Amino acid sequence: VNDIRSSPKKLPRDFHAKAELHKTQRVVSVCQMYFLDYYCDMFDYVISRRQRTKKVLEYLSQQGDLKSPDQLNGEWTGYLEKEHEILRKRRLKPKNKDFE
Amino acid sequence: MSFLQNFHLSPGQTIRSTRGFRWNTDSNKDVDSTRSSPKRSRDDRSGLVGTQPNAQNLDTQLWVTPTRSGNTLPELQQRQTQREANVVTDFNYTPSHQKQFLQPTAGTAVSSHQDLKQIVEITLGSEGVLNQAVKLPRGEDENEWMAVHCVDFYNQINMLYGTITEFCSPQSCPRMIATNEYEYLWSFHKGESPVAVSAPKYVECLMKWCQEQFDDESIFPAKTSGQFPQKFIQRFVIPMLRRLFRVYAHIYCHHFNEVLELNLQTVLNTSFRHFCLFSQEFELLKPSDFGPLLELVMELRDR
Ligand SMILES: [Zn+2]
């Protein structure tokens, strides 16, 4: 067990003492929560965005006979600008980065 | 040799995705279509009318490998012999050792927001879903999509490394290495040659360097009107991802046992797989950038 070259299960000698520290337990649970929250939020965003895009495209195709291509392109571009702004805000939202 | 050839696919070869993640099972179409070719048009913004969006059925979507010829994988780049014989490296990364913890799970179909939390729990460690999520949303600016992901991966790596800071010290890891064959050096001043630093020092410098770029309005614009700089991807995104990758490499190669004991292997694998899929989708990293983890990258990709 002491030969680290032959043991793939090797842990540092003081691993368990450190792992049991309140500090370690806390960062581990914060990390798990962070990922769960991140992926929930990310999938939620991706799915919502796809649904919004779908609705806009459906709407625009219904308007096809009533409006000029320029109008339709304008509305599509306007929609994309709004989406772009939402995405940028996601990047800038305050990050709970420093837990230590 | 293209990136995908490392995953045992020939250029131009077409494979059918059998792990398709269906975003909308009812209508079986998705306007936010995914591209099947690495060549992507950027005219979504200007031309909607005239080119009706083709409703693509993701289920039958074909996945075509790029035909572009890239670089050959340099033989063990940055190969270094361990200069200090007294530093014994804990080489705890072996693919066979990690294989059992990669946890393949069946594909998941998501058609609504319901049960998302549950699905995410299953999905962490699953596959298929992330492949779809990395795709550029229809009409979105590629630079913004890159920027969001840079910040996301930075945060993820910060979190992951934060859990092992107790175990990654200048004593345990006097050099920023990944296996015995790769050592990453840090350049403190422009023009000066990079120097060897401890792993925690390297990560500290790296995170600070990333943060400085995020805070720079001329690189990562915060204002609605702010523009990305010229060649943003080549000049800023790729260098950042190449360096962030090294933290994954160090964790996998030297702290995987601690990660296992802390029961964080699923989040680590999910995060790394997400990182790889994103890099691959936009052809950001070369096989040589994955050096010490190339085998693991293949394992995560192939299953
Ligand atoms: Zn370390």
From TrEMBL, chain B:
Residues 49-59 have a biased composition (Polar residues). This is Mob1/phocein. Keywords: Metal-binding, Zinc. Pfam families: Mob1_phocein. InterPro entries: MOB_kinase_act_fam, MOB_kinase_act_sf. Zn(2+) binds at C168, C173, H250, H255. Residues 17-59 are annotated as: Disordered. It comes from Torulaspora globosa. SMART domains: Mob1_phocein.
